[in-house]
């Protein structure tokens, strides 16, 4: 591990801040679709139907999984952009 | 060709394929043995991760559990997939950038302490062995039913196969074998699911079929019909479940965090070329996993519907062939309590415990039991939940080759996970205990030999656990997740996101989390199982979900201890800074 020059450190600091902001947003969505819609709000959501599924039940057994996949690929894509912006990509 | 001949053919061909791949890709160096050389493509790694991850429990047991738990089964679906979001966002890219071989490697280096490394190894071995014993039982069940051999013989055959690709091939061999195993297991899972969805709803896509109307002209939705038929039999509605909300919440969380803390999953992200590949690879892994995990709830609902239709109020003498097949294998039982020769399915256990058959048969030809009947319930049928997926093709009258395919798929699922677990155990012993703690001057060749010896020893132990399953294994196997959530996850997470966390805090946290979770589970599952009811649980949280509280305790203790002890040295701050940026990630350090 080598000492980093001040320029890279500043870029690394800003990069890390943006990463954390993105992380918090995506983890919030992750929490809302699974623990929120699938568990805490399920009794309420179950009065609505999505085809043959009660909505809360659908989020618990199908929907949250689809959202999880989208979250990971969005994160991978967005992070690549942020890394390029700060010239820190691998 | 007869179904039995087809099974031998399918299983034989798939095994020959795995062994061939293992010989082709065998490891020549420790780096190849531990992390497959570090150059695995993210999509390939995603597929291998999915096979590694989806065990006999996912393939064989999960749909059966959901079928009998209804909504409550969602804990497995969300829990075992949501953890990949945590992995991709919070752990995988940083661990890849760190660039060494194992989870204890990271903890030992980040917390500059051999004690921390050793505690991590203990957590890892504990988690992996509880998990692997369950896999070996899965191998035994599938072999005994489909290959018509003794369960012990089945376990031994399984051990020999795993020995080949784990000991010879190391991570490199396992990775490519697992890709083949993924293809076999997902094909084997999807084919009967397509058929059954088509039969029940007329829509071949199970994910959509589950939300469609039943094909019987009643115009009812699948879930609606299932709710209604279960309520008529005295069960609660399928879409409602019976666990308390806090328990469902905590079990889901424990399974998610545990997934993100399971060493054999984490280590797969050390094998891709770059940190950014680790993120993409987690996404691919989840796609491959989701294919099975979104099919499972459909398989579960269809299986329960079929089961109710064909068993309830049917005379035993007219019971379908699969019912009698599984009765011969001790996994289904009929106790004719009211002596009418007709099977009644209702809520509650038919009798206490697992069936104990006598030699004799009853008036309708059913196998007689010595179990004390449960007078509180009208239920007369015992079903082992593990059979739902395996019996599905038979329940739906599918052709022999589909049954053969499911046999090959179940074995692929169990063997791939067993191999992945054996590898983390052997790597931890050879690399973390021997090379990094006790004998730093060992040669590369010596370390590779030690890893192979450790893998062999681990296979033997796993095989013995499979042949003589101690009662506690079945009781605690699901708790590998709680233990991983409470011990390893917080230490890794704080190692990345806090520059200040020091070794005293991390060690105290891991020990507290592991000890608390272990004692809580052991109390309710081993020492005082009669007390295992909701009234006695802490905050109403069952032993399955307690890992979350263990994790919270881990964080709290770690932070308090950190505040009271000397700060982490300055070079640790620089190490953390370097793992946070992707640039400069090279192959895993050769050291």
Automatic annotation (TrEMBL), chain A:
Domain called Sodium symporter small subunit: residue spans: 14-88
Source species, domain of life: Bacteria
UniProt cross-references to InterPro entries, sorted A to Z: Na_symporter_ssu
Pfam families per UniProt: DUF4212
NCBIfam families: Na_symport_sm (TIGR03647)
Protein known as: Sodium symporter small subunit domain-containing protein
Native species: Croceicoccus naphthovorans
Species lineage: Bacteria, Pseudomonadati, Pseudomonadota, Alphaproteobacteria, Sphingomonadales
From TrEMBL, chain B:
Keyword entries, A-Z: Cell membrane, Ion transport, Membrane, Sodium, Sodium transport, Symport, Transmembrane, Transmembrane helix, Transport
Superkingdom field: Bacteria
The protein, known as: Sodium:solute symporter
GO terms for MF: symporter activity
Entry GO terms, CC: plasma membrane
Location relative to the cell: Membrane
GO-annotated biological processes: carboxylic acid transport; sodium ion transport
Protein family according to the UniProt entry: Belongs to the sodium:solute symporter (SSF) (TC 2.A.21) family.
InterPro entries associated with the record: Na/Glc_symporter_sf, Na/solute_symporter, Na/solute_symporter_CS, Na/solute_symporter_VC_2705, Sodium:Solute_Symporter
Its membrane topology: Multi-pass membrane protein
Main localization of the protein described in the UniProt heading: membrane
């Amino acid at each position: 591990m080598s000492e980093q020059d001040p320029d890279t450190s500043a870029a690394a600091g800003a990069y890390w801040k943006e990463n954390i902001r993105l992380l918090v947003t995506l983890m919030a969505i992750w929490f809302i679709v699974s623990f929120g819609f699938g568990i805490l709000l399920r009794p309420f959501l179950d009065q609505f139907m999505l085809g043959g599924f009660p909505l809360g039940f659908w989020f618990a057994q199908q929907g949250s999984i689809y959202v999880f996949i989208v979250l990971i690929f969005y994160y991978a894509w967005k992070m690549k952009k942020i890394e390029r912006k700060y010239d820190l990509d691998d | 060709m007869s179904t039995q001949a087809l099974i031998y053919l399918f299983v034989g061909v798939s095994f020959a394929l795995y062994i061939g791949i293992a010989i082709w890709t065998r490891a020549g160096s420790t780096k190849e043995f531990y992390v497959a050389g570090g150059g695995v493509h993210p999509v390939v790694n995603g597929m291998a991760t999915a096979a590694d991850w989806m065990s006999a429990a996912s393939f064989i047991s999960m749909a059966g559990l959901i079928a009998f738990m209804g909504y409550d089964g969602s804990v497995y679906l969300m829990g075992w997939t949501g953890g990949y979001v945590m992995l991709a966002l919070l752990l995988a890219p940083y661990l890849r950038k760190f660039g060494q071989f194992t989870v204890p490697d990271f903890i030992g280096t980040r917390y500059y302490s051999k004690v921390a490394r050793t505690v991590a190894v203990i957590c890892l071995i504990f988690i992996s062995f509880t998990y692997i014993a369950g896999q070996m039982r899965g191998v035994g069940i599938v072999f005994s039913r489909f290959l018509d051999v003794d369960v012990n013989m089945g376990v031994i055959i399984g051990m020999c196969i795993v020995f080949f690709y784990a000991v010879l091939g190391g991570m490199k061999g396992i990775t490519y074998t697992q890709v083949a195993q993924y293809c076999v297991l997902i094909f084997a899972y999807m084919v009967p699911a397509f058929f059954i969805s088509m039969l029940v709803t007329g829509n071949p896509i199970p994910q959509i079929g589950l939300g469609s109307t039943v094909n019987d002209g009643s115009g009812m939705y699948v879930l609606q019909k299932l709710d209604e038929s279960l309520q008529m039999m005295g069960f609660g509605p399928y879409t409602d479940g019976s666990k308390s909300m806090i328990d469902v919440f905590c079990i889901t969380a424990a399974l998610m965090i545990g997934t993100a803390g399971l060493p054999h999953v984490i280590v797969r992200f050390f094998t891709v070329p770059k940190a950014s590949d680790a993120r993409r690879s987690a996404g691919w892994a989840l796609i491959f996993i989701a294919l099975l995990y979104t099919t499972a709830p459909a398989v579960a609902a269809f299986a329960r519907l079929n089961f109710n239709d064909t068993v309830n109020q049917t005379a035993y003498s007219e019971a379908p062939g699969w019912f009698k097949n599984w009765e011969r294998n001790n996994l289904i039982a009929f106790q004719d309590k009211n002596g009418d020769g007709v099977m009644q399915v209702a809520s509650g256990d038919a009798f206490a415990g697992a069936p104990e058959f006598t030699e004799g048969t009853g008036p309708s030809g059913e196998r007689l039991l010595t179990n004390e009947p449960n007078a509180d319930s009208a239920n007369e049928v015992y079903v082992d939940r593990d059979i739902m997926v395996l019996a599905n093709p038979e329940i739906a009258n599918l052709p022999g080759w589909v049954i053969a395919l499911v046999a090959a798929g179940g074995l692929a699922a169990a063997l791939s996970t067993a191999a992945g677990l054996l590898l983390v155990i052997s790597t931890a012993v050879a690399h973390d205990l021997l090379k990094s703690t006790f004998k730093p001057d060992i040669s590369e060749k010596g370390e590779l030999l030690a890893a192979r010896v450790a893998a062999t020893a681990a296979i033997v132990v796993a095989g013995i656990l499979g042949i003589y399953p101690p009662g506690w294994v079945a009781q605690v196997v699901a708790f590998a997740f709680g233990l991983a959530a409470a011990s390893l996850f917080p230490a890794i997470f704080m190692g990345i996101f806090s520059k200040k966390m020091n070794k005293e805090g991390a060690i105290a946290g891991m020990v507290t989390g592991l000890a608390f979770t272990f004692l809580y589970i052991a109390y309710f599952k081993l020492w005082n199982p009669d007390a295992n009811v909701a009234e006695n649980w802490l905050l109403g949280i069952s032993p399955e979900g307690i890992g979350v509280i263990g994790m919270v305790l881990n964080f709290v203790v770690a932070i308090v201890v950190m505040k009271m002890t000397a700060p982490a040295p300055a070079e640790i701050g620089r190490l953390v800074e370097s793992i946070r940026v992707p640039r400069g990630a090279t192959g895993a350090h050769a050291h």
